[in-house]
Amino acid sequence: MQLTVWTYEGPPHVGAMRIATAMKGVHYVLHAPQGDTYADLLFTMIERRKERPPVTYTTFQARDLSGDTAEIFKKACSEAVERFRPDAVLVGASCTAELIQDDPGGLAKTLDLGVPVVPLELPSYQKKENWGASETFYRIVRGFAGGREQQTDIPANRCNILGPTALGFRCRDDIVEIRKLLEAMGIEVNVVAPLDARPADIARLPQAAFNVVLYPEIADTAARWLERTYKQPVVNTVPIGVNATKTFIREVAELAGIDPEPFLKSESERLSWYSRSIDSNYLTGKRVFIFGDASHAIAAARIAEHELGFKVCGLGTYSREFARDIRAAAEEFGVDALITDDHLEVEDAIQASQPELVLGTQMERHVAKRMRIPCAVISAPVHVQDFPARYSPQMGFEGANVIFDSWVHPLMMGLEEHLLTMFRDDFEFNDEEVASHLAALGGNGKKSTGNQNDSEMHPGAQGYSGGSSGNGSAVAELREPESDGEPIWTADAEKELKKIPFFVRGKARRNTETFASQNSLVEITVETLYDAKAHFGR
Amino acid sequence: MNRMVNTSQLSGCASESAEKSERPLIRERGQHEVFCGLTSIIWLHRKMQDAFFLIVGSRTCAHLMQSAAGVMIFSEPRFATAIIDERDLAGMADVHEELDRVVEQLMKRRPDIRMLVLVGSCPSEVIKLDLSRAAERLNRVHAPQRRVISYSGSGIETTFTQGEDNFLAALVQEMRPEEACDKASLIVVGSMADVVEDQMRRIFSGFGIDRVSFLPSRNSEELAEVGPNTAFVLAQPYLGATAQALERRGARWIPALFPLGEEGTTNWLKAIADYFEVDPDRFDSIVEPGRNRARQAVAKYREVLEGKRIFLFPDSQMEPSLARFLQNEAGAEIIEVGSPFLHRHHVSKELAQLPDSVVMSEGQDVDRQIDRCRAANPDLIVCGMGLGNPFEAEGFSTKWSIELVFSPIHGYEQAGDLAELFARPINRRGRLEVDV
Question: What is the 3-state secondary structure (H, E, C) of A406-438?
Answer without folding.
Answer: HHHHHHHHHHHHHHHHHCCCCHHHCCCECCHHH
